[in-house]
Amino acid sequence: MKRVLKILFVFTFVSILSLQGIWDNLAEASEGEEPTIRIGVVPSEESLSVGGVNDFSIKDKVTGEVLLTGSNNEVQVELAGSSVVKTNYRLQVAYSTSNAYIADWLQRAESFGYPTYIEEYNNGWRLLIGEFPADASFSVRTAFKNEIISRGLGASDAYWRLITTVEGESTIKISDGETAKTTTNSIQVISNDLVTINGKKYRGIAEVGFNSSGSLAGINELPIEEYLYGVVPRELPPVPYGELEAQKSQAIAARTYALSNMGKRGKDGYDLLPTTSDQVYGGYEAEHPISNGAVDGTRGIVATYEGKLITAVFNSTSGGFSANNEDVWSSEPVPYLRGVPDAQRGKAFEHVPSLEVFKNHSNSKSLRAAKEGDFEADWSKYHRWNFEWTAEEMSDVLSTSYNTKVGKVHEINVTERSSSGRVIEIEFVTENGTFYEYKDRIRTTLKYINASGNQASLLSTLFHIEPVINNQTKEVVGFKVYGGGWGHGVGLSQTGAVGMAEKGATFEEILKHYYQGIDLEDRY
Predict the structure, then answer these.
(1) Which of 127, 243, 372, 430 lies at a CB distance of 3.0 to 4.6 Å from 94, suitable for a disulfide?
(2) How high does pLDDT run on average in the chain?
(3) Do residues 479 and 465 touch, judged by C-beta distance below 8 A?
């Protein structure tokens, strides 16, 4: 018989709006004071190294005990003993505040040999029974539910929940080659100078703790303004994009994004990742005097709409016209995330680049020759781009995307466009059926083949596609796409910001162009 009394993680479905409210509250709670932020620079590893460029000490985060000291070196940190993380379906059958009822239910349930689980909630207890793996079929779980009802241990309104539990304790081992220490708590590297994690230099504190899967996470905790020193130059490199007003607009967008997403990845022990999943963060070695100056020159300034921090999304290059958020993601329209032109030509649809504009552009970049790497560093190559698939390549691309053999591709039809010109529905008519894709997922379905021979996501959904016809046989022998921009296209266009700054626009003018109707506020 098995009874679990303590839960560490419970996964439930929470709406994006609810999460946004939580993050807004976290951000507003720190209003008037510069907050610290925690970045999972090494999200999940069995071992890593930490240290400092000068004198440092490694402390137990809970007890404060100094475990090791060092100077200008790193020590090894390993997962010495690991807890067991389990995610199972459990059937919730009741909620009660009666100790007598709970004791009777547990005795009856366990007399049949069922695993039981009770969860404290609102001055009472939730009663759950059974333990099925996350991939257990619905029919198996339904049969179990009917069995529980027949034995009087639950009613027809019982329902399944996915519950994640952690059993046992994980242990961290720290070793400098001569001395080794262990602890079940997180450890922190404290120094008056820079700290290091896996050889990379960071301001603030280095920490090693446990993530939700039970492995180790290397975390950099530091004041948010110092964090931005390592974000802005990675998101908008000062070389060659040294326009100060563009750098300032990037700093404010990055600050707003960070503050509005505090706690986003709290279950793993940190706030954000250092990648494009959140914001690219390069630590101390990424810093540059121009971007540092942009951060300092906008200290505490954030973008708000009706008093709330905005969702400050940004992208590399809009291709001439940015996107409405609902045209890219499955979300309700956001007033400040409206499509606008890169150039100051008005918002009318006729300013959206047409097929003729794409075809006739003299500097259109062939993606066939595009090397892998940092697209932002050579963004101008992708303001206009094109690519041509053979019939065989298109068949392979779609077969991979849909995980089935599609055979010959007869037609590719754009069935719906947004007001910003982006494709929001596309139809693939093939030998083995007709397939559809929508909004930003189109980019990961309609892949191109890069210079390394690998399939890569199409740069944007601002494109036109045509069949390539054999003049003699009149057969479709391939497809050609003409497009513009790189990224989802919503919010601030980073290269567009540079262009506006070159023409004399201030950071306020830039931000209020790409985020319609916003205000700029000083939060601390």
Answers:
(1) 127
(2) 87
(3) yes
Helix 244-260 to helix 289-297 angle (10° resolution) is: 60
Residue 162: is it exposed, middle or buried by C-beta count within 10 angstroms (0-12/13-18/19+)? middle
**DSSP H or E run through 106:** helix 99-111
Long-range contacts of 174-183 (CB under 8 A, 24+ apart): 174/58, 174/67, 174/68, 174/75, 174/76, 174/77, 175/75, 175/76, 175/78, 176/68, 176/70, 176/73, 176/75, 176/76, 179/68, 181/67, 181/68, 182/80, 183/60, 183/67
What size, in residues, is the chain?
524
Residue 498 has pLDDT above 50, yes or no: yes
Q: For residue 183, how many C-alpha atoms fall within 13 Å in the half-sphere facing its CB?
A: 23
DSSP string, 282-308: --GGG--HHHHHHHHHTTTEEEEETTE
Residue with tokens 């298109």: 394
Question: pTM here?
Answer: 0.74
Centre a 10 Å sphere on the Cβ of residue 16 and count the other Cβ atoms it contains: 12
Q: Which residues of 39-74 are buried (b: 16+ CB within 10 A; e: fewer)?
A: bbbbbebeebbbbbeeebebbbeeeeeebbebeeeb
Phi, psi angle pair for 491, to nearest 5°: 80, -150
Rg of the chain taking only CA atoms, in angstroms: 27
Listed residue (48, 57, 84) closest to 166, CA to CA: 84
- Pairing state between β 385-390 and 365-366: parallel
Q: Rounded to 5, what percent of the chain is helix, strand, coil?
A: 25, 35, 35
E strand or H helix that includes residue 425 = strand 423-430
| 181-185, 319-323, 473-477, 509-513: the lowest-pLDDT one | 319-323
User: What are the tens digits of pLDDT across the range 316-332?
Assistant: 888 888 999 999 998 99
Question: What is the strand order of the sheet 308-309 is part of?
Answer: 308-309, 301-305, 519-522
Give the span between the Cα atoms of 106 and 160, in whole angstroms.
18
Query: What is the C-alpha to C-alpha distance for residues 5 and 29, in angstroms, rounded to an integer?
Result: 33
Q: How far apart are CA 361 and CA 364, in angstroms?
A: 6
CB-based contact 316:379 (threshold 8 Å): yes
Indicate whether 165 pLDDT > 80: no
Residue 155's contacts (CB-CB under 8 Å, 6 or more residues apart) are 93, 94, 149
Q: What are phi and psi of 405, to 5 degrees?
A: -75, 115
